[in-house]
Amino acid sequence: MSTYRVHYIQHVPYEGLGYIEKWVKDNGYNLTVTKIYEDYKFPDQDDFDMLVIMGGPMGTYEEDSYPWLKDEKLFVRKAIESDKAVLGICLGSQIIANALGAAVYPNKEKEIGWLPISFVDKESQDLFGSETVSPIVFQWHGDTFDLPAGTKLLASSEACVNQAFSYKEKVIGLQFHFEATEKSCADILNNSDEELVGGKYIQSEDYIRKNTQYIPSCNKMIETILNKLIRL
Questions:
Q1: Structural domain for 77, as ranges
Q2: CA angle centred on 177, ends 159 and 22, rounded to 5°
Q3: Where is the Glutamine amidotransferase domain (predicted)?
């Protein structure tokens, strides 16, 4: 049996795979990357089994400023059409939504910090293996999206209705960061702390750095969903 192949797209140097990298290495899977901030080249669809699309500070609607967004959306659309397992996180989920024809736009409120989401039903909660219907997760986003046609809403929050969705079982979009580690949280804080101003759902840097007790449960949930995706 051939080795399972995971390819990921990284948009900025400080938003990598986090816990997902540990999951890949622990299972002995093959890992490749497209770094958008370097001379990027997307792989052939035959060269990977799972695609993971990471976050970034740009908006999917900023194609004039980031021309590569058009290429990436086409690549993601082809991956979905090729029946690949696809996981999008933060910007990655927004790119999936956009690639599937849905609008992406600024949310009324930014969400930054350790904040609760709520799974919409027991089936969604079980999909992630969550022990609670309202887990605390790491958030860092200002945009939202309409649900693409044919998708199922999985989770919502007080500030953002569309927090997570699935499409034909093998495609998952998450606005939040289940893959968060202490290092990945620190990396984002060190590069984006200017966003920590005002807002009902924006926590202080000190609070975010001190409340890392939620990381293990987040990592357990991302591992659960990854293990399910590779079996589909």
A1: 5-231
A2: 170
A3: 24-184
Residues 6+ apart with CB under 8 A from 55: 11, 15, 89, 90, 91, 92, 140, 141, 177
Question: With 0-12 CB in 10 A as exposed, 13-18 as middle and 19+ as buried, what is 231?
Answer: exposed
Q: Which two tokens stand for residue 158?
A: 């007080």
Which single residue is written with the structure tokens 């622990």? Answer: 26
Size (the chain), residues: 232
Encoded amino acid at 141, one letter = H
Does pTM top 0.90 for this prediction?
Answer: yes
Task: Give yes or no for a contact between 10 and 47, defined as CB atoms under 8 angstroms apart.
Answer: no
Q: What is the CATH number of the domain that holds 135?
A: 3.40.50.880
Please state whether beta strands 5-10 and 50-53 pair in parallel, antiparallel, or not at all (unpaired): parallel
| 209-224 pLDDT tens trace | 999 999 999 999 999 9
For the chain, what is the domain count? 1
